[in-house]
Amino acid sequence: MATFEETRLQHVQRHFTVIELDLPCVNGECTIDSELGFGTPLSCDQPSNGTKTYKFTTINAPLLPESGIFRCIKSLSETPTKLQPGRGLAVRGSSVVTFVEMTDKDPNPFSPAVAAGLSTLSGFFALLDARNILANRDMRLKNYRVESDGTIDLVNGAETRYYITDTFSRNKNGTWSLRSSDELAAINLGDALWPIPLQGFLRQNITEIQTQIQVDQNVNYLTTDVLRVGDEFMSVIGSSNVGTGTAQLSVGTRGSQITKGGTVLTNTERSDHSAGDEVYVCEQSVDERIDDLLERILIDVGISQDLIPKSDWIAEIDEWHPNTRINTLWFESNDVASTLEKILTEYLIDMWFDLTDRKIKISAISVWKESDQRLIEGKQIDFKSISKKKEESLRATRSFIIYDKKFLADPEEVPSYAKKSLFIRTEFEDSAFFGKPKVNSFKFSSMLDKDGADLLNQRYVSRFVNPSSYNWVTQEKFLTFKTGDIVDLETSVNIGFNGASTGVQRAQITSVAPIYQEFGREYRVDALIYEPEITSGGGGGSGVIEQLIRGNIADVNLYIQYAGAPSQPTDITFILDSVTGSSTDTNTPTIRIGNFPSGSKVTIILINDSYLSARGGNGGNGGSAEYVNELQRWIISPVPQNGGNGGVVIDCSGVDTDIYLSGATPSVNYPTAAGRIFAPNGGGGGFDPVTGLPAFASLNIGGRGGDSGNGNSPGDAGFGGSISPSAFGDDGLNGQVGVQDGSFLNFGKDGNNNNAFGGSKGKGVVDSGGTVTLFGATQSNYVNGDGDH
Fold first, then answer.
1. E strand or H helix at 313, and its extent?
2. pLDDT per position as a tens digit, 329-375
């Protein structure tokens, strides 16, 4: 006897299939209306107390070493699960088994009624349908191979595929069809909603400031709950008599932010509400991992914990979303499929049901995923069975998403969101390539933060900038891969410029469909190209990865926004082509290398006069003064403020980094560097007010504001102070944007000490523990300021 795997490489193979169907039964006494029944819950007044397994095989199956397996399957087909990259939730798998009616057999031959001769003249499947509810039953599709010596191991020799039955119906030609779906399809049921709606409501009217609210007795309210009444959110902080007709809740100050664990989940506005208004208990995600949220939703709607390989999920999220945490409120019930698709799409994760493992699988989308094996045409791929086509519907050279919804209950429209994230592969929009942009637009997101939004767009465009799909046939003996696997394809359809085969192409298996033939099985396989690296092609030699960056940039995290968060040590080069770089505040670097795995190497090459600086320090406000008659003197308040510090241009985040500003570079495609890095200035301190004459005299004036520091985005100039009531000092001057010749002389300086101190000069390059080397840095193209070089 041999297992299914042990017979895989047999030279001569004969295949057959057995279907197993589990139905509840009544063993022992079975009566219905005092008459003998037929041993099923529908035909007995007694409850079910066991399970009966029916087994069926194909009409032409070999002689099997077990009786009671009916030869009646006319045809068998499967529509397997199919990944929908970029849409999250896979198409659920299904199967159709068609049976020939058997008129000489009864499905319950040993039940009391049949033994007494009460069986009708209907066929086997007509009786099976009449006596049983056949929906939502376990069905196993077991594929076997006959061993080379002719023996058959029905216990260990099968690959089992697990389904749940949907419908059982009679066809016009007298056959019967059993339709089944994979176990993830349960979330498509019309009553599968999440969060699960409760029956909460207000018992009395409440005003917009009232914090004691009278609620229903239906819901078991908790002091950790967040409620939504109309468009207003409330935090429960106390309760009494919950579950009774006098239930009362204490809520926090109305209209205040809803916070949990120090994180703001939403803003809200207070309003009056009426008796009978719905009180909706929100589900909360507070620093919640992606895998924990997905698991929670599935279990809430009835998916068995046994179907969730949590350790595998944790490993996948730890590798590809290690720092992602979800902070939001789930404040209305939606169908589960839509909710899962939203989460999976916004974090670019595929989810599908593996029929043979009987597990729900997840897989993050990233161009950094490595292949598991190589599939060769003529072996794993049937010779000349493979085809390839462009997938224009998926292609995108740029992607964007609107995010950061301050008030969750606001309408789903652009003004409700504060921020936008955009990623562009400009090189593919040049006339030499596609010639114009092709944009992917995600729906609005109330879950994503900046890093999450940037990573979503980067991973989508990098994955689908020029996608193609493959389709081929694989014989069962060579089926060593599964849906979701990343593979290298060595085929005749990958042709280079000279007409010769280009070798291998990386792809993800999106579907494996069995084709059931009279005496055998083969498999129709779909796959989608998986870009092997961001940009390559000689940029310094074989295997060197280059990413081209153009245009204006600010607050960039290279690891997230342009590399797509690789999980393993990486050697990557960033080409900054005619880039102008700045930062939006002095606490955020213009460029942060980011959290590359230990052992990574980053190279930055500035070309075509790329110019990087950062935000200059803010100027300090000028002082103000008021003459106090009783004291016969001036009171200076507020006093002039100190200037702010300048920002950081490049923070290398502890990653070993080479930066090329001029001269030769290691890149074949971009051999000459030409760019500048200027540390910004600190902001000037504010000035004292001019005083000394009696109050309100025309010469008295508020203190002048300090000048803001120079930078690609200068700081805010300080405001002038005042002499009460209306003698204002001048505002400070705005800092210089350093683009003109000789501007390096005006950068990397401390802010002026006036009556208040100036801010510290900004920083050109900060190592943060990494080994950082600058090439071609001269006085005219590099101003360090307080940096490390």
1. helix 310-320
2. 999 999 898 999 999 999 999 999 999 999 999 999 988 888 889 99
**pLDDT of 653 above 80:** yes
Residues ≥6 apart with Cβ < 8 Å to 773: 657, 658, 659
Contacts of 220 (CB under 8 A, 6+ apart): 242, 243
| CB 409 within 8 Å of CB 331 | yes
Q: How far apart are CA 181 and CA 395, in angstroms?
A: 31
N-to-C CA span, the chain: 72
Q: Is the peptide bond before 638 cis (omega within 30 degrees of 0)?
A: yes
Beta-carbon contacts of 681 under 8 Å, excluding residues fewer than 6 positions away, are 616, 617, 646, 709, 710, 711, 735, 746, 747, 748, 749, 750, 751, 761, 762
How high does pLDDT run on average in the chain?
89
Q: Which of 747, 707, 422, 788 is nearest to 611 (CA)?
A: 747
CA 566 – CA 291 distance, rounded (Å): 19
pLDDT digits (tens, 9 = 90+) for 573-584: 999 999 999 999
On the question of a cis peptide bond just before residue 62, with omega within 30 degrees of 0, the verdict is no
> Tokens 């207000």 map to which residue?
202
Q: What is the DSSP string of 279-309?
A: -EE-EEEEEE-HHHHHHHHHHHTT--GGG--
pTM for this prediction: 0.89
Map tokens 């840095």 to a residue: 777
What is the spatial distance between Cα 277 and Cα 202, in angstroms, rounded to a whole number?
6
Across 520-554, b (16+ Cβ under 10 Å) vs e yields ebbbebbbbbbbbbbbbeebbeeebbbbbbbeebb
- 297 vs 292: CA distance, rounded Å: 9
Which positions ≥6 away from 374 have C-beta within 8 Å?
487, 488, 489, 490, 504
- In this structure, are residues 105 and 55 in contact, taking their beta carbons and an 8 Å threshold? no
The alpha-carbon radius of gyration of the chain (Å, integer) is: 35
Query: pLDDT digit string (tens) for 231-282?
Result: 999 999 999 999 999 999 999 999 999 999 899 999 999 999 999 999 999 9
Asked if residues 488 and 380 have their Cβ atoms less than 8 Å apart, the reply is: no
Q: Is 739 helix (H, G, I), strand (E, B) or coil?
A: coil
Helix (H, G, I), strand (E, B) or coil at 602: strand
As given in the structure block, the two tokens for residue 664 are 């030769």
Where are the extended beta strands (E) located within 530-647?
545-554, 556-557, 571-582, 591-592, 601-607, 610-612, 625-628, 633-636
Structure tokens at 389: 């086509």
Sheet with 591-592: list strands edge to edge.
556-557, 591-592, 648-651, 763-766
Are 13 and 152 contacting, i.e. CB atoms less than 8 angstroms apart? no
- Residue 559 is given by DSSP the state I
- Which residue, among 428, 669, 369, has the nearest Cα to 536 in the 3D structure? 669
